[in-house]
Amino acid sequence: MSAAGSSTESARRVAVITGASSGIGAAAAYALAQAGWDVVLGARRLERLQEVAEATGGRAIALDVTDQASVDNFASQIERADLLVNNAGGAKGLERFLDTDMEHWEWMYNTNVLGTVRMTKALLPKLRASGDGLIINIGSKAGLDPYENGSGYNAAKFGLKALTRVLRIEEIADGHPVRVTEIDPGRVATDFSLVRFDGDQKRADAVYADKLNLSAADIAEAIRWVASLPPHMNIDTMNIMPRDQA
Q: pTM value?
């Protein structure tokens, strides 16, 4: 039997997914629900989130990972958590370092790094209590290879990589059963660039035009596979790119 557990309703395992209103988060909700997980979905865009929840048989709860009160309210409504997918994140702007927009940097760090910290701290006791809990942090190729004009997002995703590694080391040292995985996608055609460019559709489309792109479903399949593994296995990192990206 896979790590998704028993087919009986009382034993159905619970996956919590942040940033689940679109893109990789929404695709992960579909993939995990089809694999037999109960899904609890969090995002700021509640109307879109509710559509995903309705389609997956999941539960939608408003969530802003940059707001501690929102995280606390979200976590208080969850009785059980076997899997946490820290997917909420994103980039703002594409400026050179000397032209840094500090508000962009603060948003990226608060969302990608501190948002992951808030969610993990809030749900870690429940993940430990599950007996074989799993945390999957969605990183980025930007956390592996810096690129020109990407210093703010690079710094945030490098920070996420560090905290992911430290968390795994500390869970092992403290004798807890929680596994920790980081999945680092390369170029995935989602709303990512639309957010980065403040809704400039033409500029966002140019990022993916005439290229071989991954889909959100591709990354969701990786999430589903990692979550299906038996509890004695931990996938440390997965670096996933389209064939023409290196």
A: 0.92
